[in-house]
């Protein structure tokens, strides 16, 4: 650090004459002389000291002080020195590399202290600030072992970090030494470690969802297949010549075949929607006309359930950007569910109006006045194959995939769906679909 020229060097001074120097000294000792004069005066007044001797002694002291040099006063000035950077200038490339990574990344010294963290790392782990020891903040045995092993051997270590709080997450953690060209890492006193976190949460959830989907789909298909095989064996055996039994069993078999056909159709529909979910629709759809068309298509079911589907629509067309066939499937599914499971009421109300939510302009509400559902079921109603009452759902020819299909279609249209079950009996279920 460059020292200021006037920080420690003495200032040059001009030479003083003897009388001037003596006067300067006496002025410097002024407080001492004043105190001494006060003491001498007290001795004269109270101690009986002769005034002439007191004046003589005081003059002697003044002469002696005039000949003595002034005390040297050292003035110290505090200069603030900028704090050293967390990483040396020669290692600025490390910070640039860390910031270029999309995953959380931390640079540690050989003691495990965080020297640098990139923006994703600061967002995911806000408590891991520079200057803190990583193993003291993230108290994970595998992380401690990986950092200690990398420091001890100079080789990279990796493991899978599973956290349950604040939410369940999985990360692949890699602890790797940062090697300097031409220098052995273990012999470098200023050696660094690079710790990266690659999220595996979505992959884990997709794998779990795929396993659940296969298990549920096979279970849903196994039941009608077992039923068909049993009826076929019966028709080939004891009921081979029983015309009445044959007609009854064939009717049941047809119903089971229809059930498998609907299930396969829904599975294929869900697969197609997921395949194109990242592609936003570009067509133009009139929501008012679409809802009227859906209502006309469900009049037969509504009359059979002794319900009236009431539309509350604006007088003018309401244009949205979307896929017409998929939006038709959404509202057909929602109104059909309201007719099936809201049969305790006398009407199903479908309304369309504008909303002021950010990014969303139109809201379609489907309200039935049936028994509704218990609050604990509401968050899971859009899960695949989730049924509140499995027997009642199968009797009403449900596959357990309808609301899952609706959810994925609305997500493809960049919309939102909310489901609310009224607390009071007879108020039923309310589903709101919000679209841009």
What does this structure look like?
The longest helix is centred in the middle third of the chain and has 36 residues, at about 200-235. The model is unreliable at about 1-15 and about 80-85 (pLDDT under 50). A 5-stranded antiparallel β-sheet has the order 2-1-5-4-3, sandwiched between helices. Strands 7-9-10-12-11 form a 5-stranded mixed β-sheet. A two-stranded antiparallel sheet has the order 6-8. It is α+β, with helices and mostly antiparallel strands and about 425 residues long. It has helices at about 20-30, 30-45, 50-65, 90-100, 120-125, 135, 140-155, 200-235, 245-275, 285-295, 300-305, 325-340, 390-395, 400-410; strands spanning about 105-110, 115, 155-165, 170-180, 190-200, 285, 310, 320, 345-355, 360-370, 415-420, 430-435. The protein is elongated, with a radius of gyration of 44 Å. The two termini are about 60 Å apart.
């Amino acid at each position: 650090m460059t020292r200021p020229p006037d920080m420690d060097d003495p200032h040059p001074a001009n030479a003083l004459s003897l009388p001037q120097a003596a006067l300067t000294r006496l002025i410097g000792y002024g407080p001492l002389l004043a105190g001494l004069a006060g003491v001498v005066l007290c001795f004269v007044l109270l101690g009986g000291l002769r005034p002439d001797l007191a004046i003589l002694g005081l003059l002697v002291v003044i002469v002696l002080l005039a000949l003595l040099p002034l005390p040297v006063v050292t003035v110290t000035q505090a200069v603030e020195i900028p704090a050293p950077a967390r990483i040396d200038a020669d290692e600025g490339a490390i910070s640039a590399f860390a910031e270029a990574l999309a995953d959380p990344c931390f640079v540690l010294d050989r003691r495990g202290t965080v020297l640098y963290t990139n923006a994703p790392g600061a967002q995911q782990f806000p408590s891991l600030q520079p200057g803190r020891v990583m193993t003291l903040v993230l108290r994970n045995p595998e992380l401690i072992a990986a950092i200690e092993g990398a420091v001890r051997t100079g080789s990279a270590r990796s493991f899978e970090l599973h956290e349950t709080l604040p939410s369940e997450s999985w990360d692949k953690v890699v602890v790797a030494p940062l090697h300097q060209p031409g220098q052995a890492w273990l012999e470098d006193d200023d050696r660094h470690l690079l710790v990266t976190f690659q999220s595996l949460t979505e992959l884990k959830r997709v794998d779990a969802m795929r396993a659940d989907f296969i298990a549920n789909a096979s279970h849903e298909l196994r039941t009608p297949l077992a039923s068909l095989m049993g009826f076929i064996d019966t028709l080939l055996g004891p009921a081979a010549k029983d015309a009445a039994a044959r007609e009854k069993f064939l009717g049941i078999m047809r119903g089971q075949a229809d059930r498998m056909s609907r299930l396969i159709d829904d599975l294929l529909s869900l697969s197609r929607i997921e395949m194109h979910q990242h592609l936003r629709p570009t067509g133009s759809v009139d929501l008012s006309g679409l809802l009227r068309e859906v209502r006309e298509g469900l009049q037969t079911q509504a009359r059979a359930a002794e319900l009236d589907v009431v539309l509350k629509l604006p007088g003018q067309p309401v244009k949205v950007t979307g896929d017409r066939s998929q939006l038709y499937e959404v509202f057909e599914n929602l109104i059909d569910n309201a007719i099936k499971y809201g049969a305790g009421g006398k009407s199903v109300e479908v309304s369309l109006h504008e909303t002021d939510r950010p990014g969303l302009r139109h809201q379609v509400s489907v309200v039935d006045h049936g028994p509704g559902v218990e609050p604990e079921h509401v968050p899971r109603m859009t899960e695949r194959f989730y049924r509140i009452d499995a027997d009642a759902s199968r009797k009403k020819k449900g596959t357990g995939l309808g609301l899952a299909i609706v959810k994925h279609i609305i997500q493809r249209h960049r919309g939102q769906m909310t489901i609310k079950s009224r607390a009071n009996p007879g108020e039923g279920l309310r589903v709101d679909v919000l679209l841009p």
